[in-house]
């Protein structure tokens, strides 16, 4: 069932209960996320939910209506330009098995394992049986990227793409979307693949997790994919339903970070380029490589960037609200940018060749972020490794755990 | 309180100055990114970003061939991605709260005009959206205005090409309950949400000019 405004039968007589302050679509019941105003058109107050307004407004004056979509079979063949590694093949079999048995699965795979492709066989099978499939992620960047990869591989399939402001809709049987979009789907998908399950805001937002469950049919498979599983994810799938992939698709070890003690804060505050940072960048440039410099706060980045720019004209800085983010990321793939300053926004979803990484103020990052950041290095067969430097004022549990996890991956073990 | 653009909690520092200020429903980082203007040479009249080889603004030249030139065109925000998303949410997902955000940027000396007249929306669009997006911003800012015009036009402007818009007959007429003759000799401000080709506001101005006001200026929330 799909919630569609002005179409289908009434599912709830109003989207928002203005007295109890509950949104019947997304389940929001936190007062601060409701907005009330007097509407001259309705001649009354209107209360609506701010939590899910980006997918069309759920309010106190409009009923929620829903349409039913018939299932349909599609041949849904796909083509890959390469063969899956043995590890990928085994994981792919487990995903197919989960689909057969209507089980949930947690695919715990290192960064750069080739997770997306592992799901292709199950997607194809599900569609051939007429089951509805959703590939979702909390991050828009990931959704866009996955859509490109899926449309390239599944050439004849009709794939819907939904994220805030963008809608390519066919018949709702094979959908790539952000998790938020699932609020409009009720018991609809038989196979849901959740990529980057650990990414903000999914782990913190139990409403979003509920949305995934509500979008799934009774006999469904939910496949969670992540490089950093939480206890909750493991419990969700069940310990026996965790598939691990400790090798990258190209077979090389993950790069292990090197820790450099010291804080860059004081230098930056005094408008000086920290000497250690300068040396590290110089080193990278001398070897004709490029470097991502992760900075814990936007304000720090704004102070540091002019100092870097002065020494290295081929540099840029990005953060989430940056309008030229995609342009700048692209310029890092060419020769226009060699040094890119970034917040955690680029911790996942990006691949650059010949890349090294520096993390400033590494003591301020959590384990999940650090693991993702380390995962940016050595993603290509032609450049399977690189250097990672953590500049940290002091050692933290997160840094220790990061190194432990990476080392155990390299030994073929996982931390759970 | 939350920011009505990004929905994050607003944690403004409390000091002697901010303590007595009215709290604003927009966080400082959203405010910064919304108020940004893209760099480049702009038309001094309509504020459009011009091509390098453009001596005079082609849009303004085009309009001046068909319509009387207004006194001044004012624009509050550049139409870059952040602002585009704001209008998408405000107009198409019905996120009415964003009227308060737009109202924060409304800096215009309305007192200098005898009539401030917002561009109307059709009955069909009003029923769909539930509000006139231009009036609602003026309401939120506490600006008095005159609901002088009506339109029967239904096709979305964004779905029409420039020539289509031009060849369609002027869709704006005076409302029966508005005393249009009162405009004679008066200073008028036409207010619209987004200025794209400018044809919409110029058509409204054409209707208003027929009553011989001394001046018509234009205010748009964003210049596309």
Describe this structure in words.
The complex is a heterodimer of chains A (416) and B (224). Chain A has twelve helices and 21 strands. Chain A has helices spanning 86-100, 115-118, 120-128, 140-153, 206-215, 231-237, 265-269, 275-286, 298-311, 325-333, 367-374, 397-410; strands spanning 2-3, 9-12, 16-17, 22-23, 34-39, 44-49, 64-67, 105-109, 133-137, 160-163, 166-168, 174-178, 189-194, 216-226, 242-245, 258-261, 290-294, 315-318, 339-342, 355-360, 388-392. With 416 residues, chain A is an alpha/beta fold. Helices cover 29% and strands 23% of the residues of chain A. The mean pLDDT of chain A is 93. Chain A folds into three domains: 2-67, no CATH class; 86-245, 3-Layer(aba) Sandwich (Rossmann fold); 258-408, P-loop containing nucleotide triphosphate hydrolases (Rossmann fold), CATH 3.40.50.300. Chain B has one domain. Chain B has 224 residues and is of the alpha/beta class. In chain B, strands 1-6-5-2 form a four-stranded parallel beta sheet. Chain B has a two-stranded antiparallel sheet with strand order 3-4. The chains are: A alpha/beta (416), B alpha/beta (224).
